[in-house]
Amino acid sequence: MPRVEWKEENRRYALCFFPLIGAVTGGLLLLWQFFCGLLDIGFFVNGAVSVLIPVLVTGGIHIDGFCDTTDALASCADRQKKLAIMSDPHVGSFAVIGLCCMFLLQFALFCEIHGHIVIAAGYVLSRALSGLAAVTLKSAKKEGALQNFVKPAHRKITITVLVAAAVLSAAGMCIISLYAGIAVCAACALISVIYRASAYRNFGGITGDTEGWYLQITETAVLTAVFAAEKAVMLL
Length: 236
What we know:
By secondary structure, the protein is mainly α. The protein is built from ten helices and no strands. 78% of the residues lie in helices and 0% in strands. The chain is globular.
C-alpha cells in the first residue's frame, strides 16, 4: 500500500475497510489452494503456507496483540499491571507458548479441512466482527492505537458497513455449506461473548492488543468449526 498521512479526515471510514483485508487474505488462500491442486502439493506444505498467508498479509500486527494479551492474562495480576504488561514491548514465555499452540492447531486443522471457501469468507467475518467490537465496546484506555481509529470514526456509517459485511459473509458461508456456515456463526458468536466478558473483567474494556487477540482466536475458531462440521457431516 502507498504511504499516507493519517489525518482525522481520512480515518473516519478506515474501519469500514477492515473486512477488505479479510477478503484479500481469503482470496490469496483460495489462490494457494488452486496451485496446491494444480501442482499436487502435499498436506504439510499446504497447511504451513495457509497458516502463513494471514501473517504475510497483515505483517503480524494482530499476532503482536495476541501475544501481549496472552502474557497479560497469564500474569493473574491486577488490572493496571495487566495493562502495563500489554504495553511492554518484550515477549513473555506465555506469549510464546500461546503462539506455538495456536499455530500448531491452525496447521493441523488446515491439513484436515476441505472447505477452504468457507474459511476464506470467515476471514471477512472475523474482521467485520473485530471492527464492530472496536466501535461498540467500551475502551480500557482513552488514548492508544485503537483510539486513533475509533475516535474519528463515523460511527453510524462504520457500523452499517461492518454489519453488512458480517451478514453477507455469514450468508455466503451458509450458502456454500449450510452446516459449516452455521457452525462458524455459532463459534464466532460464542467467542464474541467470551471476548467481551474477558476484556471487561480483566482490563476494564478493550484495547488494540485485545482486538488482535480476539481476531486470532476468532480465526482459529472458524477453522475449528469448519473441521467439526465436516466431520459431523461424514458421520451423518
